[in-house]
Amino acid sequence: MKEFRFHGRGGQGTVLASIALAKAFFQAGYWVQTFPVFGSERRGAPVEAYLRLETTKIYLRSNIYEPDHVIVQDARLINLVDVTKGLKSGGWILLNAPGLPADLAPFQGFKLACVDAAHIALEHGLGAKNQPITNTAMMGAFARLFSNPPLEAVVEAIESEMPIKISENVAAARAAYEAVVLHGQVNGSELLPSAGPIFRKAVS
After folding, report:
1. What pLDDT, in 10s, does the model give residues 42-94?
2. Nearest of 135, 96, 90 to residue 110 by alpha carbon
3. Residue 202 domain-assigned?
């Protein structure tokens, strides 16, 4: 089983991204669960969503307390939320940022991947400068980082789930798929070379 936690802000499409990815994984043959956790239900407030994958039926119904990997749609949340809480050693953190954080210490023992999803979203007319809608760009980066679900399955999920600007959202996902950088594992103040994606055709 693989478990993912998504961190974002209200209005960025975090929950919608987790649902669309779940549907893409379902089409690829996985059993899936996805569900959100809301704090203050207002635009800009921190939001969490969860995605659970397995190759057989999932009977577990609890929240995800120890995710394998974490997706962060807004790098500013690092200063507000412990995005590494419960994250398994060696897990990936996919971060919406143009580059690595200045302080790597909080990410000791985890692997970092970055994509400038905000810039990509604005290039494709998704959202406003003060709040770009980054969910579909992050979905494309997710597909590249984990080599699953296939990018075309992500595109199909976007086309079926995103109510507006479908072509722009698809283009953002494709651009982020190409742009994401896998930096590797944080060891003290250094980065070890990345070992590459975690799975390709099946989860275990």
Report:
1. 666 788 999 999 999 999 888 899 999 999 999 889 888 899 999 999 999 99
2. 90
3. no
Q: How far apart are CA 200 and CA 195, in angstroms?
A: 13
> For the chain, what is the domain count?
1
Q: Is the residue at 22 inside a domain?
A: yes
Q: Is residue 84 part of a domain?
A: yes
pLDDT top residue among 99 and 191: 99
Q: DSSP code of 28? A: T
pTM of the entire predicted model: 0.89
Cis peptide preceding 36, ω within 30 of 0: no
Residue 46's identity, in one-letter code, is P
Q: Closest by alpha carbon to 175, among 201, 147, 144, 133?
A: 144
- Token pair of 23 as six digits: 């549907």
- Domain CATH for 57: 3.40.920.10
The first and second tokens of residue 87, run together, are 């994250």
Domain that holds residue 152: 2-192
The two beta strands, 69-72 and 92-96, are: parallel
Confidence of residue 194 (pLDDT cuts 50, 70, 90): low
Nearest to 140 by CA among 185, 184, 79, 94: 94
Query: How many Å apart are CA 204 and CA 186, to the nearest integer?
Result: 24
* Widest pairwise Cα distance in the chain: 44
